[in-house]
Amino acid sequence: MSKTVPPPCPEPATGPLYWRSLEHLAETPEFRAWAEREFPAGASELRDPHSRRDFMKLMSASFLLAGAGLTGCRRPVETIQPFAKQPEGYTHGLPQHYATAMPRRGGAVPLVVTTHEGRPIKIEGNAEHPLNAALARDPADRHGGTDLPAQASLLNLYDPDRARRYTFKGLNSTREQALDALAEAARKFADRQGKGLCFLLERSGSPSRARLQQLLTEKLPQARWFTYEPVDFDPPRRGASLAFGRAVRPLYHLERARRVLALDCDFLGVEEEAYRLIRGFARGRAPKTPGDELNRLYVAESLLTVTGSNADHRLRLAASQVFPLAAWLGAEVLEAGGAPAPGTPAAAAVAALREAASGLTPEVRRWGSVCAQDLWASRGQVAVLAGHRQPLAVHWLAQVLNFQLGRAGGAVGFIEASEPASGTMAALVQALHGSEVDTLVVLGGNPVYNAPADLEWAKAQRQATTIFRLGAYEDETAPHCDWHLPMAHYLESWGDARTADGSLVPVQPLIEPLFGGLTELEVLARVGGLEAVKPHDIVRGTFQGLAPEGVFEENWKKYLHAGYLPGSAAKAVEVELQWGTASQALAGMGAKPPPSATALEVVFAPDNRVDDGRYTNNGWLQELPDPITKIVWDNVVYLSEKTARELGVAVVDENRMNLRVPVVRLESAGRTIEGPAWIQPGLADYVVGVTLGYGRPAAAVGRVGGGTGYNAYPLRTTQALGFASGATLQLTGKRYPLSCTQNHWVMQGRPIVREANLETYRQNPQFAQAMNLPEPPYGLDEQHRPKPIYPNPLDQLKPDATHWWGMTVDLGACVGCSACVIACQSENNIPIVGKDQVRRNREMHWLRIDRYFAGPTADPQVVNQPVMCQHCEAAPCESVCPVNATVHDDEGLNLMAYNRCVGTRYCSNNCPFKVRRFNFFDYHRRPLDKLYQSPLTTFTDGEWEVKRWLKNRDRGSRPQEEWDLLRLAKNPQVTVRMRGVMEKCTFCLQRIEAAKIAQKIQAGASADVEVRDGAIQTACEQACPAEAIVFGNLKDPNSRVAKAARQDRGYSLLEFLAVKPRVTYLARVRNPNPAMPDYHQQPLTTAEYLEHGGTLIPHGTGAAPGAGSAATNGGH
Amino acid sequence: MAGAVPPGAEVRVIGPPQELERVPLVANQRSLAWVSDRVAGIVEGRAPLWWWVAFVPSVVALLLLGAMLVYQISTGVGVWGNNHPVMWGWDIINFVWWIGIGHAGTLISAILFLLRQRWRTAVNRAAEAMTIFAVMCAGIYPALHVGRIWFDWWLFPVHNSQSLWPQFRSPLMWDVFAVSTYFTVSVLFWYMGLIPDLAVFRDRAKTKLRKFFYGLFALGWTGSNRHWSNYEKAYLILAGLSTPLVLSVHSIVSLDFAVSQLPGWHTTIFPPYFVAGAIFSGFGMVLTLLIPLRKWCHLEDIITQRHIDVMCKVTLATGSIVGYAYGMEFFIAWYSGSPYERFAFINRAMGPYAWGYWTMIFCNVVAPQLFWSRRIRSNLLVVWILSIVVNVGMWFERFVIIVISLHRDFLAANWGHYLPTWVDVCTYLGTFGLFFTCFLLFMRFLPMIAIAEVKGVTPQADPHHPLGGAKSGGHPA
C-alpha cells in the first residue's frame, strides 16, 4: 500500500528554528501518513497490481460508509455530501463536486469545488445559490461566476510555504502541546471571567463565530474583542446604518439599475462582492437588439480602476475631492425633487453640502450637475456606490442618494445587518500599553505587517504576556508571538458564512488539513473552554439554531449538498432617512484644498491581485497581469503624466523588454517608502497611487511572493487609512526592472476591439461588420464570410459532425476582471514562469486580456478584450506544422497533440492572434530561479539532476516536498506539458469530452448524442462573473452561442485573413450622456479607427444586412 | 598542329593584336607544371604560421559551439532570446544567412559551368567547399532550434511509433528535403571534381599514409581518355542536376516565410529575391575568403585581378536586384491597400528596429554601387571590406525579415521586442569556428584550386593558341 520511506530523523520537540524542512514536518502523524503516499488518494496503489484490487474494494466500501475510517486517506472524517453529480456512488477517476463557500471579510462566495481522488483541483461558483439562481434567464441558465481570489485560492491550499508547524517562542512544538496551552489559558480565564483576555479578529460573516463570540462573552464577560481589517469593506453598512438609524446595509441589484454612480468605488474590481456586482452590471451592458436599454456608469475616482475603465463617464478626481463632488451631487439631487422647506434638517443638510462643495472647479460642478440630472431622471433605477477608502460622510451621502433616487424600490435594497460589538485596533493598542492585556489571541490577520504605522503594533503587541496566534503563514507577525498555530485553509475547514444577501452557506472541507492546521472556530472554542471544540460540531450546532423545522439530519444533508440554506437570506427592510444624523455624518468634512505638486495626495488601494497582502505568495495571482497596468510580480507607484513631468519622473517607454523605471521616495508625515514609478493614463493629477500587499521578505511570505514589489503600509496611519495629503516625492536615482505583459497600449486605429455609442448602434446595428476590411472580390461563402482565393476543402465545416463548437465573447459585458485567466490557469495546469521570463515575453497564459487605451493620456478610454485560441476553421497554424502536431477535428476544434510536437514554433509565428505559448523551459518541473541552469550542472536535494532523472523520469527538479504538493493541485484530466512543446487554449477539451461521454451513455442505443446546450461550460465561461463568454454548439441554431453569434454586434477578429475563427466577438456599446461635458460622438477607439481611414458604412460585395459575420448561422 | 619544335629553339609567340587580347585566366604565362606545383605546394609544405594563427581560434570557437549546443539541448530553447511573439530569432536568421552563403559554390560550379564561364575554374573548388561548410553550419540551426531535438527524426518520412507521416503542406518539411538534397548533391559534385586532383596528390605523395588515403579517394584515376570522357559526362550531368537546386533551395527557404500570412513574410516576390540575395551573399563570402587566401597562398597568378573583377560585377548585379526587391516590397505594401501590410513596412523603416533596416539598405544596396567603378574593383582592400559589408548586410536582411516582421504583427497587444542572449551570440560565433575549422583543414589537405580545370583554361591547353599544344612549347614561328 505504501512506498518505503526511511524513518524520520529524531528531532527534539523544540529543535532549532531551521528552515521548515521535511524532517520538521515529519513530526506530525498526519504528514507522515501523507508523505508515505506519493499521491494521497491512491495513485501509488494503482501502480501496484496486487493492491489495486484491494484499493478499489476499500474505496468502494469506504465511500458507502462515507468516511468511516480510511485512515491515511485525506478524505475528511466527517460526512460531507457530494454535490449534484453522482452523489450515489463513486467512480474512480471521475471528479466529484462539493458545495462550499469561500469566506471573505464579512461575506462569502458560494462555490462548488471539483475534487479528484480527494484533491480539490478546481473552484467554481455555485450556480444554485439564490444569488446566482435569481439572475438565471431561464431554467437551463446555470451560471455561477466567481472572482480572482476565489479562483486562485486553490493554489494557496497547496502552498508549501504555508504555516506547517506548531511553535512556541519560535521553537518547534506539537499540536498536543499547543492544545494543552490553549486549555491552560481556558482554565486560567474561566476563573478570572476573562479578565486580561483579548481577541484580535478579522471581520467575518460566520454565524458560528458570532455564536462562539456570544457564548464566550457569556462565559468570560470581561474578555475583550477587537477587529482589524487593513482594507475594510464595512463602511457602506456604517453609512447606511447612520443614514437610516438602524443596523442595515445596502444590497445592490445592479441588473435593475439604469444609472450607476461609483464614488471612488471599484465595485467591479477589488471591492467586496465584485463577483455578483459584475454580473448585475454586465447584464445591462450586453444588448441583444438595438432596442435594448443600456445602463450608464458614472465614475469619479482618483486611480484608474477596473470600474473606471468601464465607465461611460469618468471624472479624474483626487480622493479627497470625492466628498465635495458627492456633496454637490447630493445637493443637486436633493433639490431636484424640489428644494426642501427651509428650516428643516434636510434644508440644513443641503446647505452644508453646498458649503462643502464650494471648492470645486466649475468643470467638476458641471459634471456633477449633469450627472445628477441624469440620475434624477432615472430615479427608481439608480445605484450609487461609495468606495471603502472614502470617509463615512461619502457613504452616508451615497445611501442618502440611493434612498432619494430609489424610492420606487429598484436597484438598491436594504437588509438587516448587525456586526458583533468589537473594539478598534487603536483601542487595543491603548489597552496593551495600559497593561490590561494578559493574553492576546490573534486569529488570522497579519497586524505586524499591515497595522497602521503610527500604532507601532509590533512593539505594542509585545506588551501582552502571552500571545496566541493562528496564522496561515509564518509571516511578519509570527516571530512576535509566543504560540503560533497553523491555520487551516478554508478548503480544509468546517465553517459557515453568510453571502451578500445574508444567505447561510456552509464551508465544507474537501481535504483533511494538509499540515494539521486549526480553524478559528476551534481555537475560539478551546480558549473559551467550550465542550464542543470540533469545528464540525460547532457548525452543526449553529445550524441547529438556524435550521428550519423538520428532520434535522435531512436538513443538514440538504444544506451541505446544496451549499446554502434556502430562505435564510436577510430580510429586506423598509428604511426612512433620518435627517437628524446628517450633522453627525458631515461633522468635520469641510472643503479640503486639492493636492498640488508640493503637497501630493497618497491614495492607498488594495492590490488588484494580492489584495491587502493575503495572497502575496500565490503564484497565479502574482503572475496575473494587473488588469490596468498589465504589470506582473510587482506593484508600482502610480503617477499621472502631468504629475510625473512636473516632478521630473521619466519612465522611458521604448524597448519595454528591458523596462527599468525610476525608483521614487514618497514621504508623508515623516514616514517614507520607496517604489518604482509608473506613469498611468487616467490618473488624477497630483495623486500618487500606491497598492498594498507587496514588499514582503521571503522569510515572511514564502518562496513565491518574497521580495516582490514595495511595501506601502509604512505610510499608512490611523488617521489616513484611505488617503493621505501633503506627501512629497523625490527621485532616488535608482532604477528598478518591471515585467509588463503588454508593451503596446493603443490599437493603431485597427478595428480590433470594435465599439460604438448607443445612438450609432441604433442607427447602424451592423457597425461592427462595417469595420471589416473590404472583402476580396471572390464572394462570400455559405456562412457569409469572405471566400479565400484558393478554397481548401479541408477548411470547410464538416456537415456530418454532431457539433460545431464555437464561442462568443461579449466585449460589452466583459469588464476585464481577469477571473477567467486564473480559471483557465487552474483548469489547464498552466505553469507560472516568474518575473524574469515574463520580462522576456514568455508568460504561458492561454487566455489573456488585452487592454487598450484610446484618446488622451490624461483621460483615456479603456477597452478590454479576452483573447484565446480562435479555433480557426482554416487555421494557419495547422498547415505549417511539419509533424502534424496541431490538427483539426471534425467538430471544429483546433487540437494540439503535445506528444507529437517537436517545437519548431512556426505555428506561433503564423498565428495572427499570437495565442500559442511555448514551453521555453520545463516550467512545471524546474524551480523558477534555476531555469537557466543546465541539469548537467545542477543538484536537487543533494543529488545530481541527471541521476535523478535517470532514476525516475517523472520526477521534478524541484525539492521533493514542493514537488509533491504542486502535483496535488494539477488537474489529472489535462496533460502537464514538458519543455519544448507548444500549447494553447483547447476550449477545455476535457470538459467537452466528458460531456460527450456522458451524453453517449445517456443516449444508449438511441442516436441522440448531441450534447445539450449549456452542459459544457469552459473554465473561462464558468468563472466569468459577467457572463461575457458563451460556449456551445453552433450547429444548433437555438443554442445560446449560436444566438449570440448571430447578433448584429458579432464580428470576427481579423476577418480579412479568411481564417474563419470559431470565436465571435460581440462589439462593445457605450452609453454616454450627450449632455455631459466629456461626451464624445464616437468612442475614442472608433474615432481613432476613422482617423486612420476606416469607415462605419457597410460595404463589400454582398455582406447582406442581418448576416452574422462569423461562424454563426449554423444549422442552415 | 605544326611540326615539332627542336629542343632549345626560341619560341615566338604571335598573339592576336593587343587590343583584341583577353586577359588570360592564368597570369604570367605560367606553365602547367607550375600550376600543379603551386596548388599541391599548399598541401605538401609545412603549415605556415598564419594558418596556425587562424586554426587555433577556429577550433576554440568550434568547441564553444559544442558547449553552447550541449547547454541549449540540456536546458531548453529558452537560453536563447526567442520569445513570444518573436519565436524565431538568431536561430533562423543564422540558418538563412549560412544557407545564403552556401549558394555561391554550386552556382559557380554548376551554372557557370553550363554557361561556359571559364573563369570559374580558379574559384570553384574553394567556393564549393565553402558551400558545403556553410550548409553544415546552417543545418545546425533548424535541427537544434526545435524544442525537442530528440524528435527531429519525425521530420523525415520514416515510420515512427505514431504511424504518422510528416505534414507535406508545411514549408518546414520542404526545407528538410531542399536543404538535405542540396547538401548531398553539392558534396557529390564537389567530390566528383576532386577526383583528378586527388590523383595528382596521390602521385605526388611522399608518405604511405597520404598515398593510401589520396589513392583511396582518387578511385583509381589514371587520367586515361576513357576516364576523362566519363568524368566530363558525369560532371555535366551533375552540373545539370545542381542547377535547379541552386534555385530551389533558397526559393524553398524563402517559402518558410512566404507561405505564412504574416505581413512582411507573406510576399510572392520572396523566391527570386531570396535567390538573388543568396548569390549576392555567396559571392560576398567568396571574395572575403579568397582575397586574403590568394595573397597568403601566392595564388595571384591563378586567381587574378580579372576574377575579382568579375565577381565584383556579379555582386553589383545581384545587389541591385536585391535593392529592387526592397523597393518592390514597399510598393506592393502600399499598393495592396492592406493597412496591416503597410504598417509592417513602415515599421521596418521607422519602427524601433529601423537601425537594422537602414543598416541593411546601406550594406546591400548602397555600398555595392561602388563596384561600378573600375578603380574600386581593382583595389583589393576596398573590395575585401565591401565583401564583408555585403555579408553584414545580408545578415541584417534576415534580421529585418524575421525579427522586425514578427515583433509587431496584427494585434497591437502582442507586440514585443527581441534581444539575443549571450548564448545566441556564442552559438553564432561557434558556427564560424565550425566553418573555418573545416575550411582550414580543407585547404591543408585538399586541392584548393581545381588543378585539372585550371590547366584546361590556360593558353597552353588550347591547341589553337600559340602557346598551346605541347608541354614544352607551342606553335613554331
What does this structure look like?
- The complex is a heterodimer of chains A (1116) and B (477).
- Helix content of chain A is 28%, strand content 18%.
- Chain A is built from 37 helices and 40 strands.
- In chain A, the strands form 13 sheets. In chain A, strands 5-4-16-15-14-6-7 form a seven-stranded mixed β-sheet, sandwiched between helices. Chain A has a six-stranded mixed β-sheet with strand order 21-23-22-25-19-24.
- In chain A, helix 8 (207-219) runs parallel beside helix 19, helix 9 (235-244) packs across helix 15 (392-405) and helix 12 crosses helix 14.
- The radius of gyration of chain A is 29 Å and the shape is globular.
- In chain A, 59% of the residues are buried.
- Mean pLDDT of chain A is 84; it is low at 1-26, 35-77, 79-83 and 1101-1116.
- Chain B has 477 residues and is an all-alpha fold.
- Chain B has one domain: Formate dehydrogenase/DMSO reductase domain (Formate dehydrogenase/DMSO reductase fold, Up-down Bundle), CATH 1.20.1630.10.
- In chain B, 65% of the residues lie in helices and 0% in strands.
- Chain B has helices at 32-44, 49-75, 90-101, 104-114, 124-144, 171-204, 208-218, 225-258, 270-296, 305-336, 339-350, 354-366, 374-378, 380-407, 422-445, 451-457.
- In chain B, helix 4 packs across helix 8 (225-258).
- At the A-B interface, strand 29, helix 30, helix 31 and strand 33 of A face helix 2, helix 6 and helix 11 of B.
